[in-house]
């Protein structure tokens, strides 16, 4: 598929916005943007100089590629309407947790796959796709080759995986990104309650991340839970008395960290 291929985006959220902008910068033609709301559709369409619509019935019928980037429930619900009248075209979705087999539920669909860039995206912040791992899957070897060609215009790290592997990647990413960021949120609230800025945590977070390039996460783990220092941990739990849910998270996380540390000791040759 040449860079001049016409692409339609079904969805205009965080991932779709970043992917559409990146593809356009690489010379692809973004022909149309669909979103449920006019505000989102128009905003992205203006950035990539495309037409836009809020009506799935008005999707361009002959684009070379349709990239469907919707939340999982909407993807399942709207799939027949998205494909209707375009069964000979090439469709991919961008979801980490939705199996490629979903496309097979659409009668007559000939070309389909998955294009999953594993990164956290926000509309307000552009990211470089060059170092983002992009995981692909397609229904035929020919479509896999096409999808690989597209992905390699964006990223140096393109891998073909199956749906089970992609679901594992998505689950692991939730722990590594979403859950970690939630911990940052709680950290920010604890600091704010005590008149402190979250900015003081940034050097700590940066070093924690940086050393993972040299150490495994288990080897890099530090803190009172590793050695199960109940004296320190009890003080922390007491300090969270106004937040019972956080106390529960602290206890669960501490026990899990300690178990992993002990498991690490058992598997290291003595």
Instruction: Let me know the CATH homologous superfamily of the largest domain.
Output: NAD(P)-binding Rossmann-like Domain
Order of H and E elements: EHEHEEHEEEHEHHHHHH
| Rg calc | 22 Å
With strands numbered from the N-terminus, the spatial order across the biggest sheet is 3-2-1-4-5-6-7-8
Please indicate the percent range of residues in DSSP E strands (runs of 2 or more). 5-15%
**Continuous helix count:** 10
| CATH class category of the largest domain | Alpha Beta
- The third-level CATH topology of the largest domain is Rossmann fold
Silhouette: elongated
Helix content: 40-55%
**Largest pleated sheet:** 8 strands, mixed
The secondary-structure class comes to: alpha/beta
Report low-confidence residues grouped into runs of 5 or more. Answer: none
Q: Identify the CATH architecture of the largest domain.
A: 3-Layer(aba) Sandwich
Quickly count the domains. 2
Describe the structure.
- There is one protein chain.
- The chain is α/β, with parallel strands linked by helices and 270 residues long.
- The protein folds into 2 domains: 6-161, 3-Layer(aba) Sandwich (Rossmann fold); 167-267, N-(1-d-carboxylethyl)-l-norvaline Dehydrogenase, domain 2 (Orthogonal Bundle), CATH 1.10.1040.20.
- It is built from 10 helices and 8 strands.
- It has helices at residues 14-25, 38-48, 72-83, 141-154, 163-193, 202-210, 217-220, 224-227, 230-239, 244-267, and strands at residues 6-10, 29-34, 51-53, 65-68, 90-93, 111-117, 134-138, 158-160.
- It has an 8-stranded mixed sheet with strand order 3-2-1-4-5-6-7-8, with helices on both faces.
- The N and C termini lie far apart (55 Å).
